[in-house]
Amino acid sequence: MDCPLCQMPALPPGAREYRRSATFTEVNVPAGLLQNHRTKAGTWALVVVEAGELEYTIESPLSTFLLTPQLPGVIAPTVSHRVKVLGPVRFYVAFLAQ
Fold first, then answer.
1. What is the number of structural domains in the chain?
2. With left for phi above 0 and alpha for psi between -120 and 50, is residue 87 left, alpha or beta?
């Protein structure tokens, strides 16, 4: 049985938020988030959807997830990823370190 959510990285124990982005919408999402990009070594992140939905794609292993207020996207350090706006949305990115 396939388990797409099993492909989502897991935050390491003790990861703590140290910075948070502004809140973005379908109108003001930065172009860089829509293209493949990476966090630096040691930096984890969470894409937190407050309203609506986002498509979140991880390049390695190639996996795509539908992010909702109930399912945030976990970003592992240095892993190439991007989001795609699917309609009205409100979200932010929380940056974490161990």
1. 1
2. left
- Is residue 59 one of the residues assigned to a domain? yes
CA distance 97 to 4: 25
pLDDT tens by residue, the chain, 98 residues: 345 556 788 899 999 999 999 999 999 999 999 999 999 999 999 999 999 999 999 988 889 999 999 999 999 999 999 999 999 999 999 999 98
The answer to whether residue 67 is domain-embedded is yes
Quote the domain boundaries for residue 51: 13-97
Alpha carbon of 15 to those of 5, 27, 32, 44, 94: distances in Å? Answer: 20, 31, 25, 8, 11
Looking up residue 93, the CATH number of its domain turns out to be: 2.60.120.10
75 and 9 in contact (C-beta within 8 Å)? yes
**3-state class (DSSP) for residue 34:** helix
